[in-house]
Amino acid sequence: MTTLTEPEAPAATAATGEGSTPGRGLGRQIWWWVCTLVVIVLAVISALVTVIPLIFGAVPLTVLTGSMRPGIQPGDVVVSAPASPHDLRLGDIVTFQPESDDPTLITHRIIALSDGDAGVQLITRGDANSADDPQILAEQVRGRMLYVVPKVGYVTNMVSGDLRGPLVTIAGFGLVGYAVFTFVRRPRGASERNTP
């Protein structure tokens, strides 16, 4: 004997709206991954500019001029950490005060070192400059460059004054927290939608 069985009615699928647009679930998943990737990138940048400097006692500084082009551009953030005068080497990029007790800071490369009666003395020059900077004492050096975060300085310059540090730190921790949240919570997949 031959029998015919009716396939299950697709009416339930049509009633819920699922299955009517086959790429809809895929589009949501792609959107979720793109948003997650953006948040992760922002969290990493934020960590590079705020969290890591806090851990190592470093200072993030926004580059304002093109004296260190092409390697360091205006708008980049240079993160410099304190260094002992005897740890400084030719070729190191250092942040220094050109005159003692002057709040102005310059970040240039060491091109000459000498140890004299006054202590370690340095001559620096910006990579894009043709002239050397005046000689400085190692005590004027505020830090040696650890790394550069490209173009982030434009954003940090928008928030100025005493609020900058706390706001950037809060934003950094917020982005890291959101990145963790997005990894823990995954997008609804097809298997979850079809479960009764």
Automatic annotation (TrEMBL):
Q: Determine if Membrane is one of this entry's keywords.
A: yes
Q: What is this protein called?
A: Signal peptidase I
Question: What residue spans carry the Low complexity bias annotation?
Answer: 1-19
Q: What is its EC number?
A: 3.4.21.89
Which subcellular locations apply to this protein? Membrane
GO biological process assignments: signal peptide processing
Region (Disordered) spans which residues? 1-23
Show the SUPFAM superfamilies listed in the entry.
LexA/Signal peptidase
GO CC list: membrane
Membrane spanning residue stretches = 30-56, 163-184
Natural source organism: Mycetocola tolaasinivorans
Q: State the organism's lineage.
A: Bacteria, Bacillati, Actinomycetota, Actinomycetes, Micrococcales
